[in-house]
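FW: tagging you since you asked about this chain on Friday. Here's the raw sequence from the shared folder, copied in full. Didn't touch anything.
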Amino acid sequence: MITYSTKFPIKESFDKKTFVEMVIKWNQGSKYDKFDSLEWDGESFSTSWEDDDKKLIIDELSPKEVVASRFQKEDEHGLWKTDFILNCDKKYITIRVELETTQFTTDFYPNYYPPFFVKQIIYWEYAGEDGCLPVDQDAHCLDSYKGDIDDIVFGRASLALPIVFVSKKPEGDFPVDLSALAFKLQGVAHVIYEGNAVELGTYASQLDCEGKNGTAIIIYPNKNMKRKVINLSGVNNENPDQVMTRITNAVYEFSNQVMRLDIDTWEGIQNEKLHFQNGMLLSDRKILEEENAELYEVFEEQLSKTEEINQELNREIQRLTIENQALRMRLASRDKQPLIYMGEEADFYEGEIREIILEILEDYSRNVQKDTRRDHIVMDLLENNNFEHIPAKRREQIKVALKGYKSLGGSLRRLLESMGFVITDDGKHYKWTYFGDHRYSATMAKTSSDNRAGMNMASLIDNLML
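HL: got it, structure written out here
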C-alpha cells in the first residue's frame, strides 16, 4: 500500500551532497527510527547502515546523475519502505512511502500527511517552481496569479502537481482552514483560494463548477482527467475536519496512483545500475582471446534478455502496486459510514444488488426534473459510482437467445445455466428458476409453435428477475 507518493521540482542548490546530508538529518531527527551511530564520510554515495529492525541505503546511478536512498523498517503493520530519489540532471525529486504487508500485519488504514523529509526540503527552501507556482506549504490568492491561472485553466500550461481551488461561502469566509489545508498538501498539490479582485466563478464553465460558493475544485496534471468538484456547502459539511479529509483524500488518492518512470523508483534504479555494470563487463571483451567470442555472444544475449525481463517485471510490479492501491482505497472507503445498509437479500452474482440499485437510479435520472435537489443527488451518486450495467447486458442476452424460441436446445440450455438458471423437467414444460430461488420461477413449453413465446418469456424474466 502506497501512503505517500509525489514528484516535484527542486532548486539548483539541492545537490547530491545536500541530499545525503538531508537524509541523515531526517533519520537523526526521528524519535523512533533513529540509528544510534550514523556517520558519513561526505564523499561516498553508495553506502548503508543497518541494525536489528531497520536499514538505510544510499546508492548512486552516476551515468544518469541520480542519487537515491531507501529506508526500511518492520513494525506491527508490516514492512515500511521509504524512498527518496534525486534526479540532479532533470532537477526534481521523487518521494514514496509504501507499506508491504506481512503475515503479522494488523488492520491498517493510513492517514495522509507529508513526510518530515518533504517538510525539510520546503522549509529550507530547496523546493523549486512548478511552472508558475512555488512548491511550498502556503495557500495563495487567485488575485496574485490571475494570468498564470488563465493559462493553466485554458490548457495553455501544465504543472507537475494538482491545484486545489477553494471558493468562498455565501457568508464570505472559506469552508476550510486554508493554511492547514496547504500544510497538509505540501509537496502533493497547490492551494489557490478565491480573492477579492478575481472570483472563482470567472472560470465556472472551464472548471465545471457552475460558479457555486463554498466549493473545492481539483485540476489534475493529467489533462485527460476530469476536474473534481467537491461541494462543501450544506449541513453535512459543517465539520471542518470532515471537509479537510474530503479534499486531502481526493488529492492523495490521485497522487498515490500515479505510475512513475523506472528511473524514479528504487527498483528501476537498481535495474539500470545492473545494466551499466553489465555494459562495462562486456566492453572488456576485446582484451580476451578471440576463441572466447562465441561464449561472449551467448553471454551478451542472456544478459540482454535478463535486463529486459527485469524491466518488464518492474513495470508490472508498479502496475500491480497502483492497481492494489486503488482497490485498497475502495475497500477502506467501505469501512466509513455507508449510504445504505445491506438488508437480508444476498447477491446472486458479485455486485448484483449494487448494479440493480444504480440502474434504478440511472432510469430515475432520465425522468426527474432537472436542476432540483433530487436531480443533483442522483447525478452525484451516479458520477461517483461506476457500474458495469450487468442487468442490461443480461437482459439483452436473454432477448437475443429466446427470439424465435422453438425448443430448449443444448446451446440455449448452457447459456441459461451459465446465467444462473436452474432448469427442471415439469411434464410438458420446463421450470426455469433463477439461481434456484423459487420466488423467481417461470415455466416454458418444451416445444412451441407461437413465435411470440420467446419474447414473452424474455419480458417475464426481465420484469421478475432482472
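FW: The first helix runs from residue 16 to 28.
HL: agreed, and The chain has a mean pLDDT of 85.
FW: great, closing this out.
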